[in-house]
Protein backbone atom coordinates (compact mmCIF):
# COMPACT_ATOMS: atom_id res chain seq x y z
CA UNK A 1 0.00 0.00 0.00
CA UNK A 2 1.64 3.20 -1.11
CA UNK A 3 1.13 6.35 0.91
CA UNK A 4 0.47 9.64 -0.71
CA UNK A 5 3.28 12.17 -0.46
CA UNK A 6 1.33 14.62 1.75
CA UNK A 7 0.09 12.13 4.41
CA UNK A 8 2.25 10.45 7.00
CA UNK A 9 1.31 7.86 9.59
CA UNK A 10 1.86 8.86 13.18
CA UNK A 11 2.14 6.80 16.31
CA UNK A 12 1.25 8.59 19.51
CA UNK A 13 1.97 7.40 23.05
CA UNK A 14 -0.01 8.47 26.08
CA UNK A 15 1.39 8.58 29.56
CA UNK A 16 -0.64 6.54 32.08
CA UNK A 17 -3.08 8.49 34.18
CA UNK A 18 -1.62 9.29 37.65
CA UNK A 19 -4.80 8.19 39.49
CA UNK A 20 -4.78 4.86 37.64
CA UNK A 21 -1.12 4.33 38.52
CA UNK A 22 -1.76 5.05 42.22
CA UNK A 23 -4.69 2.61 42.32
CA UNK A 24 -2.49 -0.15 40.91
CA UNK A 25 0.17 0.52 43.53
CA UNK A 26 -2.39 0.47 46.36
CA UNK A 27 -3.72 -2.92 45.26
CA UNK A 28 -0.24 -4.39 45.42
CA UNK A 29 0.29 -3.22 48.99
CA UNK A 30 -2.93 -4.71 50.42
CA UNK A 31 -1.74 -8.29 50.29
CA UNK A 32 1.33 -7.66 52.44
CA UNK A 33 -0.62 -6.35 55.43
CA UNK A 34 -1.91 -9.76 56.55
CA UNK A 35 -0.06 -11.25 59.48
CA UNK A 36 1.76 -14.34 58.21
CA UNK A 37 1.46 -16.17 61.55
CA UNK A 38 -2.31 -15.65 61.63
CA UNK A 39 -2.64 -16.90 58.06
CA UNK A 40 -0.57 -20.00 58.82
CA UNK A 41 -2.53 -20.69 61.99
CA UNK A 42 -5.80 -20.36 60.06
CA UNK A 43 -4.52 -22.71 57.34
CA UNK A 44 -3.50 -25.26 59.99
CA UNK A 45 -6.97 -25.06 61.56
CA UNK A 46 -8.68 -25.49 58.19
CA UNK A 47 -6.54 -28.56 57.42
CA UNK A 48 -7.35 -29.96 60.88
CA UNK A 49 -11.08 -29.37 60.26
CA UNK A 50 -10.86 -31.17 56.92
CA UNK A 51 -9.12 -34.19 58.45
CA UNK A 52 -11.54 -34.36 61.38
CA UNK A 53 -14.59 -34.15 59.09
CA UNK A 54 -13.26 -37.12 57.12
CA UNK A 55 -13.00 -39.06 60.39
CA UNK A 56 -16.44 -37.96 61.60
CA UNK A 57 -18.25 -38.81 58.39
CA UNK A 58 -15.96 -41.79 57.66
CA UNK A 59 -16.11 -41.35 53.90
CA UNK A 60 -14.14 -40.22 50.86
CA UNK A 61 -14.04 -36.59 49.68
CA UNK A 62 -16.63 -37.19 46.94
CA UNK A 63 -19.11 -38.81 49.36
CA UNK A 64 -18.83 -36.13 52.06
CA UNK A 65 -21.98 -34.06 52.59
CA UNK A 66 -21.85 -30.41 51.52
CA UNK A 67 -20.64 -28.76 54.72
CA UNK A 68 -18.94 -25.41 55.18
CA UNK A 69 -17.55 -24.34 58.53
CA UNK A 70 -16.84 -20.62 58.24
CA UNK A 71 -14.25 -19.62 60.84
CA UNK A 72 -15.04 -15.90 60.45
CA UNK A 73 -18.72 -16.57 61.03
CA UNK A 74 -17.89 -18.50 64.20
CA UNK A 75 -15.64 -15.70 65.46
CA UNK A 76 -18.55 -13.24 65.24
CA UNK A 77 -20.66 -15.38 67.58
CA UNK A 78 -20.47 -15.59 71.39
CA UNK A 79 -19.07 -18.86 72.85
CA UNK A 80 -22.44 -20.62 73.19
CA UNK A 81 -23.47 -19.38 69.75
CA UNK A 82 -20.33 -20.97 68.28
CA UNK A 83 -21.15 -24.30 69.90
CA UNK A 84 -24.79 -24.14 68.74
CA UNK A 85 -23.78 -23.27 65.18
CA UNK A 86 -21.34 -26.19 65.00
CA UNK A 87 -23.96 -28.59 66.39
CA UNK A 88 -26.41 -27.32 63.77
CA UNK A 89 -23.88 -27.82 60.94
CA UNK A 90 -23.00 -31.33 62.13
CA UNK A 91 -26.52 -32.60 62.79
CA UNK A 92 -26.26 -35.14 59.93
CA UNK A 93 -23.21 -36.75 61.51
CA UNK A 94 -24.04 -40.01 63.28
CA UNK A 95 -20.82 -40.19 65.29
CA UNK A 96 -20.18 -38.32 68.56
CA UNK A 97 -19.08 -34.81 67.65
CA UNK A 98 -18.33 -33.25 71.06
CA UNK A 99 -14.57 -33.86 70.80
CA UNK A 100 -14.48 -32.20 67.38
CA UNK A 101 -16.51 -29.20 68.57
CA UNK A 102 -14.40 -28.77 71.71
CA UNK A 103 -11.18 -29.12 69.70
CA UNK A 104 -12.27 -26.55 67.12
CA UNK A 105 -13.47 -24.05 69.72
CA UNK A 106 -10.13 -24.41 71.53
CA UNK A 107 -8.18 -23.87 68.29
CA UNK A 108 -10.05 -20.74 67.19
CA UNK A 109 -9.62 -18.96 70.54
CA UNK A 110 -7.53 -15.85 69.93
CA UNK A 111 -7.96 -15.90 66.15
CA UNK A 112 -8.98 -12.65 64.53
CA UNK A 113 -11.56 -12.25 61.80
CA UNK A 114 -9.88 -11.98 58.40
CA UNK A 115 -12.48 -10.03 56.41
CA UNK A 116 -10.01 -7.24 55.64
CA UNK A 117 -6.30 -6.53 55.92
CA UNK A 118 -4.91 -6.37 59.42
CA UNK A 119 -3.27 -3.20 60.71
CA UNK A 120 0.27 -3.51 62.03
Helix-strand blueprint:
Blueprint: H1 18-30, H2 36-57, H3 71-76, H4 79-89, H5 98-108
Helix pairs in contact: 2-5
GO cellular component, one term: cytoplasm
Family: Belongs to the PP1 inhibitor family.
GO biological process, one term: innate immune response
Question: Any overview of this molecule?
Answer:
- This protein is mainly α and 120 residues long.
- The chain has a domain at 36-59 and 78-108.
- 52% of the residues lie in helices and 0% in strands.
- The protein has helices at residues 18-30, 36-57, 71-76, 79-89, 98-108.
- α2 (36-57) packs antiparallel against α5 (98-108).
- The longest helix has 22 residues, at 36-57.
- It is elongated.
- It starts with 17 loop residues before the first helix and ends in a 12-residue tail after the last helix.
- GO terms for molecular function: protein serine/threonine phosphatase inhibitor activity.
Summarize the structure.
The chain has helices at residues 18-30, 36-57, 71-76, 79-89, 98-108. With 120 residues, the protein is an all-alpha fold. It has a domain at 36-59 and 78-108.
Distance N to C terminus: 62 Å
Question: How helix-rich are the residues, as a percent range?
Answer: 40-55%
Q: Give a quick account of the main beta sheet: strands, pairing sense, barrel closure.
A: none
Count of beta strands: 0
Q: Which class of secondary structure composition applies to the elements?
A: mainly alpha
The ordered H/E elements are HHHHH
Radius of gyration: 26 Å
Overall pLDDT confidence: 78
Strand content: under 5%
* Number of continuous helical runs: 5
Regions with pLDDT < 50 over 5+ consecutive residues? none
Shape verdict? elongated
The oligomeric state of the chains shown is: single chain
GO biological process, one term: innate immune response
GO cellular component, one term: cytoplasm
Protein name: Protein phosphatase 1 regulatory inhibitor subunit 14D
Family: Belongs to the PP1 inhibitor family.
Amino acid sequence: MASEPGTQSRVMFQAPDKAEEAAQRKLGKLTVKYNRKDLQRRLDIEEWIDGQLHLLFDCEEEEMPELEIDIDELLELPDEGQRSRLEELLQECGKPKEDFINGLLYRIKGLRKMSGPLKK
